[in-house]
Amino acid sequence: MDSPENVSDNISGHLQVQFSGFSLQVDLDFPGSGITVVLGASGAGKTTLLRCIAGLEKNVRGFLRVKHDVWLDDTNGILKPPHSRSLGYVFQDARLFTHLNVQGNLKYAVKRSSKSLGDTTFETIIEACGIVSLLKRSSLDLSGGEKQRVALARALLTAPDILLMDEPLASLDLESRQDLLSSMEKLQNQWKVPMIYVTHSINEAARLADHLLFMSQGKTMAQGSPSELLSSQELMQLNSGGPGVFIRCKVLAQDRANGLTQVEAYGQALTLPLQTTFLNQEVRLHIAARDVSLALDPPNRTSILNVIPVSITRMTEHSPGQVLVQLESHDMQLLSLVTTLSTRQLHLEAGMPLYALIKGMALTP
Amino acid sequence: MPSLDDWSSLLLSLKLGCTVTFVLILISPPLSWWLAHSHSRLKPLISAVTALPLVLPPTILGFYFLLLTGPNGTVGHLTLALGLGTLPFTFPGLVVASVFYSLPFVVQPLTNVFERVGHWPLEVGATLRASPLKAFFTIVIPMTVPDLMAASLLGFAHTLGEFGVVLMMGGNIPGETRVASIQIYNHVEALEYGQAHWLSGTLLTLSLILLVLVQKYGLSRKRI
Hints:
The structure holds two protein chains of two kinds.
Chain A: H1 4-9, E1 11-19, E2 22-30, E3 35-39, H2 46-54, E4 61-66, E5 69-73, E6 78-79, E7 87-90, H3 102-112, H4 119-128, H5 144-156, E8 162-166, H6 174-191, E9 195-199, H7 202-208, E10 211-216, E11 219-224, H8 226-231, H9 233-238, E12 244-255, E13 260-265, E14 268-273, E15 282-288, E16 292-295, E17 306-319, E18 322-329, E19 332-339, H10 340-345, E20 353-358
Parallel strand pairs in A: 3-9, 3-10, 7-8, 8-9
Antiparallel strand pairs in A: 1-2, 1-4, 4-5, 5-6, 10-11, 12-13, 12-15, 13-14, 16-20, 17-18, 17-20, 18-19
Chain B: H1 4-37, H2 43-55, H3 58-69, H4 74-81, H5 91-117, H6 120-127, H7 132-143, H8 145-161, H9 164-170, H10 180-189, H11 193-219
């Protein structure tokens, strides 16, 4: 991280802000490309952090540099107002201008963009966002997912140095989530606009994050690679999701007839609800320990799609009445959270072979 | 049959209404936005002053306006020093008094609308490179045009109908300050009920049409 290119290309700083009953104190060191996910339970200060970066909060102290541009430096009296910061912001609730149609909303952004985007860029962005057919529609008549995709396109059309996204999937149904996620991945592949993406969902974090910042109670708990952080039990403990594992899979097959996607990790096939992905694409999953059940025999009549032969490596008491069981299958690690009663009834102990059962529905972002 | 004086009083009312509404459209949106979003300690006072015409008899307002702007009043001294003469019994005097008198009818509905809109258009505007002032004129104002129309129509209708302030401030000068409502009073005083009817009926119909328009603009939307 010390080479000159990296230093001038990343996003770094430290931000402080104080409200009555809440204070935020965050150190940032994000790469200048890819998707940085800010993960934390609700009330952790994720949205406030995003608003501080955007300059929408008042009385923020500290320092913030985005690429070559210093946005805040209170020791030197530098404070760029939000409209002078080269950023795009996708709010949780889209916030389209209601007096304009979709095209009007997009043109508003294009008109105020500091860099001129060619017509082709405009076309590609609205295509990647899947809103070509919506241009003439009133912004009042769109579904939640459509609104969010228009908001994403509007934010990108200002050609920002950085894109900030505040839980854009929070109010969307499963299908719209999938659409928006795939739009984002497409855009990320084509434009490389660094994104800071706020969410409380470990699954979203697992799928999107190239870099992860974990927040709790207004503070940075950790930042680094998602595979490390998402497998850290102490950190996941702080999140409502509880312990779990993070695995990288490759898409094996798309079963559109049944609405399923098959992925493979460590030679083990997993089935989950249909993802908008292409074959051989890498998909990153978070498997929460509470979504993994255990069985001594392979169940033959069950709705559970994923039955994986594993062996127990370790058992630790998680909380009174609950045991965290560490499992291994080839090189794949899994965690399962079961009751102490079950471990007694099944006589579970380290080294024992058994079956891990994972509901397909639990594996979706 | 309406006399030439009746026609001229009606025209004068319309001219006054248009001028006052024009001034109100210029000053009300910024004032309303400030009232809706400011945390200033002065806000309750300013808010109360703009609401005064709603509760005070127009004659009281007219009386103090007369004193203030007369040759011995503070404002009167100022206007005289600037070589503008004094405001009472002139058309500009009527405009100033009427703007104040009709202000709450435009400012209050707009303040409510701006409170409901909230801060988000300025925030979204800022993330799309628009300064607060630019975002106000390119987002907030276009978004609230129907409300602005409804509030202006209300201000216009109210200006047409005022009597007390106009009488105190303007007197009864034909062609200069004798508006329709004063002319009606003159006719009734002189027991010319036919002409009073004609003018009254015209004003009544006009006001009714304006209020229907206010309703139409105010209600035909599911926005914001």
